[in-house]
Amino acid sequence: MAVGLVLLYHAGLPFLPGGFVGVDVFFVISGFLITGQLMTEIERTGRISLLGFYARRAKRILPAATVVLAATAVAVRLFVPRGQWQEIGGDIAAAAIYVVNWRFADRAVDYLAADNAATSPVQHFWSLAVEEQFYLLWPLLIILALLAARRLRRTNVRPVLWVGLAVLAVPSFVWSIVETAHSPERAFFVSTTRLWELAVGAGIALAATGVARMPRALAVLLGWLGLAAIVAAALLVTKGTAWPGYAAALPTVGAAAVIAAGVAAGSRGPVLVLGTRPFRWVGDLSYSLYLWHWPMLIVAGAYWDGLSVKRGLVVALASVVPAWLTFRLVENPLRYSRAISTSPRLALSLGGNFTMAGICAGLALVLMAAWAAAATPSRGSQYAPGAALLSTAPGTAPIGPVPERFDFISPDPLKIRQGFMDVPDTNRDKCFQQVVGSEVLSCTYGNPDGATTVALVGDSKMDQWLPAFQVLAAQNDWKLVITAKAGCAFTSAKVLKGDGSNKPYTDCIEWNRTLLRRLAEQRPDYVVTSQSAGSALDAAGKVSVDAMVAGMRSSWKTLDSAGVQVVVLANNPHPGPAIVACADKNRKHLSACAFDRKLHDRDPGLVTQRKAVVGMPQVKMIDLFDAVCPTDRCPVAFGNVLIYRGGSHIGAAYVRTTAPHLARALSDIGVPARFSPSN
Hints:
By secondary structure, the chain is of the alpha/beta class. It has 30 helices and 14 strands.
C-alpha cells in the first residue's frame, strides 16, 4: 500500500495530493521490522552482533540500490541536458553513501540556488538515507540498553529499551514540530525530524507480545481505523500542508495501528485487503519498485519536457519491469545466497564494493559535466555590452526581432546550470537574508562617507539590481546601503510565505518592522524598493491585493514623514523557471526562449506596485523593462550577455550593463544620477 501511494502520487494523479505519506508508512514499517529482528536475536542469543546486523543490511539494501544508481547515471548522460549532470552526479554519489537527504535539505533552503534547481532523479533516496542513518543509531542504543539492563540486574531488557526509545522519539517529534514551523523545506528531508516515525514502528515491535493478545474486536476496529487514517492522509494532505510536523502523526499512527492490529485482528482486519495476492505481489517488489519508478519518471520528464498524468502513469507502470528483473536477478540471489549469508565479512565486502560502484557512477557524471564545460568555448574578456547597446531615450523599444544567436554568451548558460552564481555581491558578502531568519542584514557599497545615501530595500527582485546601483554609486559618490530578504516585500502588511500555504511569513513581518524603524531613524536621502509579491493577508486572514497595497503605502508614508524620498522600481516579468536551460539547449535559435512583452503589464507584483503608487505623488516610480526586453518579444540574451540567471531573476552581469538606463530613469524623476561610459 505504501509504495502504491507513492507511485500514484509521483505519477501525478490529482486525487492523491498526499500520496507522499506512503514514505511515512515506510518509516513505521522499517522501524517495526528492524526492531523485531533485533529483539528476536536478543531473545535467542542474549546479544546483538553488529557485524551480522550490518552485513544483513548491506546485502539486502546496497546491491539493488547501486544497480539503480548506475543505471540512472547512464540515463542522465543520455537523456538529461548536460547542465544538470554535475549536480545529479553529486546527488548520486551522496545517495550511494546515504547522506543525500542532508544535501537536499541544504539545497531546499538555498534561495538563490533554487532558481535553476531541477528535481533530482535520485531525490527519493532521501528516505532511504534516513532509514540507513536510523539503522546506524538504533542497534547501538539497544546495545547500551542491554548493558544498562545487566548493570541493573534486569533479565527483561524491554523496560530499558522503552526508555531509550523515548529518548530518541520524543525530542525528534518535538523538533519535527519546531523545525517544520520554522523551515518546512529543510524539515522534510533531515533525519532529526523523522526518527520519531521509525521509533513508533520500533515501539510496536517492543509491544508485540502485548498487542498480539488484544481482543479481536478491538484489533479489527483498530486496524481498519489505522488504514482509514492512512487513506485520509493521502486524500486530504496537500503540498501546502507543513510537513512532517504534527500532521505526519496521522499516517504514522495509522500505520502503527494497522501493524499492531495484524495478528489479533486476523482475517477480519486490513489483511482482508492487504493480504490479497496483488497487494502481496506489489509488496514483494516494493523496494525495487520504489528504487526504479522515480528516476524513470524524472528522466522521462526531462526527455519529453514534462509528463502528462497519462504518460506519468505509463512510465510508473513500466517501472515494474526493471523492478521485477532487479528483484529476481539481484535482490533475491544475493539475499538468499548461502555463501554470503554465512559470511558477514563477505556480505560487508560485497556491500562496500557496491557502494564504491555507486560513488564512481556519480563521480563519472560529474567528470563528464566538467569535460562538457571545458569544451564550451571561452571568450575571456571579449566585448559583451548587453543593455549598453541600447538607447536610453524612452519609447525606443522594441527595436526589432529577437536575436537568434551570438558567437558567445556571457556568462555561459551551461556554467549557470552547473552552479556559477551570477548574483549580486550580497551573496558573497553574506548580507542577503535567506527565507529563515528575521535579523536585518545590510551591506554598504560606494563611498561610506558619501553626502548622498541611497538605501535599497525589499526582496530578491530588489537585490538583483544592486550591480547597476553600484556603478552609479561609484560615479556619483553615493553611500549605497542594501537590505534585502528572500521573498520579503518591503511592506507593513502581513506578507505570505512563498510556499503556497497562504500562511503569514513571520520572519519577513518581523524583519520589515525592524527595517522600517531603522530607516525612519537613519533617514537616508532615498529609499528604492522593488518586489515580486502582489498580495498579502488582510485582517480576516484572506489573501488580498488591497492588503498589500495598504501595507506598502503605510511603510512609504512613514518614510515620507521622516523626509525620505521613496522610489519604486518596477518588477520585471517571470519568463519561466527553465529559461536558462532553454538558452543552453537553443543556442542557435534563441527566439525559442523568448516570451511575450505583454507579460510585463500582467505581472502581479507590478500591478500591485502601480496600484499602490496611485494617489501618492510624493512616491516616484521607475521602470527598466525596455532595457530588459528591448525586442518585439523578450529575449533570454542580448548584447552577448545572458539576461536571466534563472526564474525571474536578472543576472548580475546583465544588470550591470543597465546602469545608463537606471541613471536616465532616476534623473527623469529628479534623483541626481549621472553615468559615464568611460568608467
